[in-house]
Design goal:
The structure holds 2 protein chains of 2 kinds. By secondary structure, chain A is of the alpha+beta class. In chain A, 35% of the residues lie in helices and 23% in strands. The two termini of chain A are 50 Å apart. Chain B is mainly alpha-helical. Classes of the chains: A alpha+beta, B mainly alpha. At the A-B interface, helix 2, strand 1 and helix 15 of A face helix 2, helix 6, helix 7, strand 1 and helix 11 of B.
């Protein structure tokens, strides 16, 4: 032990001896300086997007249009992601956010582990894994994993996935950048669904909260009081009036729509809402029926309701997410809608949203509903019946409109018409927690506002290049790689050794 | 430069007259060949990313065997004193020895070109990521050798040099995990030091100036401290 201590003492003595100490200190200082320079240069390089993506489909590149949008940011964009650690989403998102942060220093990112950083999650009211919050000023937009990672339709069999993160983030940026709130007006005064009623199942406050969460402002509108539809109305919602609109009110709605307005008309059966002339203007009419479906209907274990049909979706931008995620929607008491004769000199685009199933019919003997003895007979409307329509019409603003070349000065009238309003209530049909109705409503509002993709960026797909070896190729590969090459090298070594031994 | 080449040639000769280099290369090719075949047979994908990661890990464990004797042996035999008293600069000695190890490594890399060759012959791989993966492997290997050379300058015992080199390399390889655990700015800084994290972009086909600079800087830094270490020893 004594000897070891003596040795250490000796080493230290040598170390701190004149020349040694001086040279050592110089060396340490030099090394520190070199480290500092390396760190500095590395920081400069990392702050610029000096990258080149060599993949064939430019899988890891940000598109030029995204680059421009991010570069043009005037204020800090806060991107907060709540991830589940070590899953595909986290890896992909970290890499994408790093790239975006390199494009502009205004992009500030934070990544939280939802399982660990529960305080931050509570602060943002996040409960779902892999949720991204985009904030600009006081505006916020949430993006979910399903909006970002999807199945590549071209490579479903190989389990191919596609990433739409860039697309989702850029569209969210555009959305939160928009100045001025978008206002959704709910008509009032005709016993419509109450957007402030959270307490009763028939209220529509849940829908209102969904809209507020999507950065919309929600207001009530009494047309009689206002005399017209306000100019700041982005979408007008008529949510199941139980009393008819007056002719003047209906006229105000019609005028609003004719000038490129957007409206969602949810009109219940057994009620004359006074919209016949409005609908007729766009070649539609509400049938005076009550759709009954004995098979495809709300069918809970203890409760089956033929008066709550579950329709079949037609392909449309509104129904697409519901079809993709296999989410059904049911309508507790619904009427059908029919098309009227086409008008000349008008280009009205009408698209069906959903059709009742072949086992349904439109009951026209409305008195029989009260007695509960509903039966299909000759007077009833036969299946399939259309329960929802969308209408689009480009309103010319005094200028010639060429096909596929819509000018900005032209307006677009858009209407969503559904023969039911109960699906937007807090608990449709008394069934709580049902998501299909909320999604259908939100998708419809987005469609009306053109809130689909503001910018189209091709989703990034994982470039899968399969390689199936034939038995001969397989043999060549394993023989060459595992045996021939290593043995050749070792053989050469043995040869050299043998030759040198011989000398 | 001529003096660097003279040293490099001398080292290369000593590599190839002893069976050690052949055994190390042969063993490396056996292991990476096995990985290549198994990954190809199980994934059935014409891509090089998986094999490059495995080759990188294998070579990390083997590279100190190539570098361990470079300076340790000179020290043990006392021949380093002759080098110090010769008109060759310490930096030239270090550069020459590093160059020799790098050429040996390059020979190994050239032999591993057969793997992408099979992919090209039997499939349709995306060539960009294959090229960047190989470049990444070469840069990473170059860093391993610089670290190994520094380790070799620390002791005259080859085994100790190899172990020290291996420990430093493993540390630089896994340091990224600590960065992930810590998170935040400090975590990001630690992660940026990881050799594994810097290989990620190159592995997937992205040429990133930051990653390439990282490897070049690491090589320069370790060669620089090797020179400083030897100069200090000389005094």
């Amino acid at each position: 032990m004594k000897k070891i201590i003596e040795n250490i003492k000796e080493v230290f003595k040598k170390l701190f001896k004149g020349r040694n100490l001086k040279h050592g200190t110089n060396a340490v200082l030099l090394i520190l300086m070199v480290l500092g320079i390396i760190w500095f240069v590395q920081r400069i390089i990392n702050s610029y997007p000096l990258q080149y993506d060599t993949t064939a489909n430019k899988q890891y590149s940000i598109s030029d249009q995204s680059r421009k949008i991010v570069k043009d940011l005037k204020q800090d964009l806060r991107v907060t992601v709540f991830v589940k650690r070590s899953v595909l989403y986290e890896k992909y998102m970290i890499s994408l956010l790093k790239d975006l942060a390199k494009v502009s220093s205004k992009v500030k990112t934070k990544i939280y582990d939802l399982d660990v950083d529960t305080t931050a999650a509570k602060g943002y009211n996040i409960m779902e894994y892999n949720t991204m919050v985009i904030e600009l000023g006081d505006k916020r937009k949430d993006i979910y994993e399903r909006d970002i990672i999807g199945q590549d339709p071209r490579r479903q069999q190989q389990g191919g996935v596609e990433f739409k993160g860039e697309q989702a983030i850029i569209n969210a940026i555009l959305e939160v950048q928009e100045t001025g709130k978008k206002i959704v007006y709910f008509t009032d005064g005709h016993k419509e669904k109450d957007s402030d009623d959270m307490k009763t199942p028939a209220g529509a406050a849940v829908i209102k909260q969904t809209l507020i969460g999507d950065n919309y402002e929600v207001k009530k509108l009494n047309i009689i009081k206002e005399g017209k539809i306000p100019a700041d109305c982005t979408v007008l919602v008529v949510a199941g009036p139980q009393q008819a609109f007056s002719a003047a009110e209906a006229e105000a709605v019609k005028k609003y729509l004719e000038n490129g307005g957007k409206a969602m008309l949810l009109l219940e059966p057994l009620v004359n809402a006074g919209f016949d002339s409005v609908l007729a203007n766009w070649e539609l009419k509400m049938d005076n029926d009550f759709v009954v479906d004995t098979k495809s209907c709300l069918n809970l274990v203890m409760y089956s309701d033929p008066a709550s049909p579950i329709p079949e979706y037609e392909t449309h931008a509104i129904t697409e997410p519901l079809i993709k995620n296999n989410v059904p929607v049911f309508f507790p008491s619904v009427r059908s809608i029919s098309e009227l004769e086409k008008k000349k000199n008008r280009t009205i685009v009408k698209e069906k949203l959903f059709m009742s199933s072949p086992t349904s019919w439109g009951e026209t003997d409305l008195a029989s509903l009260k007695s509960g003895k509903v039966r299909k007979d000759a007077a009833d409307l036969p299946a399939p019946l259309c329960l929802g329509y969308t209408v689009k019409e480009i309103v010319k603003a005094g200028k010639e409109v060429k096909k596929d070349n819509k000018k900005e000065t032209d307006y677009e009238t858009k209407i969503v018409i559904i023969g039911d309003s109960d699906f937007i209530s807090n608990a449709p049909g008394g069934v709580g927690g049902y998501q299909g109705g909320t999604e259908l409503f939100a998708n419809s509002i987005n469609w009306l506002m053109d809130e689909g993709l503001k910018i189209a960026i091709r989703p990034k797909t994982v470039d899968i290049r399969p390689l199936l070896l034939t038995p001969v190729q397989d043999t060549i590969v394993w023989v060459m790689t595992i045996f021939v090459t290593p043995l050749l090298v070792v053989g050469a070594g043995l040869f050299v050794w043998w030759k040198r031994r011989g000398r | 430069m001529n003096k660097v080449w003279v040293i490099a040639k001398r080292e290369l000769k000593s590599y190839f007259v002893s069976p050690v280099a052949y055994v190390v290369i042969g063993l490396f090719l056996l292991i990476s060949g096995y990985f290549f075949y198994v990954i190809l047979a199980s994934s059935r994908m014409a891509e090089a990313r998986g094999i490059i990661m495995n080759m990188s890990f294998t070579f990390m464990l083997m590279s100190p065997l190539i570098t361990m004797r470079l300076l340790s042996e000179e020290k043990k035999l006392g021949t380093i004193e002759f080098l110090f008293t010769s008109p060759i600069k310490v930096s030239e000695i270090v550069a020459g020895k590093y160059l020799a190890a790098l050429i040996l490594f390059l020979a190994m890399v050239v032999i591993t070109f057969q793997y992408p060759l099979y992919l090209i012959l039997f499939g349709k791989p995306d060539l960009g990521p294959i090229f960047t993966s190989l470049l990444g492997f070469f840069l990473l290997g170059g860093t391993y050798l610089a670290v190994g050379l520094f380790a070799s300058s620390l002791s005259e015992n080859q085994l100790i040099s190899a172990i020290v080199g291996m420990v430093v390399l493993i540390f630089l390889w896994v340091i990224g995990w600590a960065g992930d655990l810590i998170g935040g700015g400090a975590g990001n800084f630690i992660s940026s030091l990881s050799m594994m994290n810097n290989l990620e972009n190159l592995g997937k086909g992205v040429l990133d100036a930051g990653n390439i600079f990282y490897y070049i800087a690491m090589i320069f830094f370790f060669l620089f401290i090797t020179v400083k270490r030897l100069e200090w020893k000389r005094w």
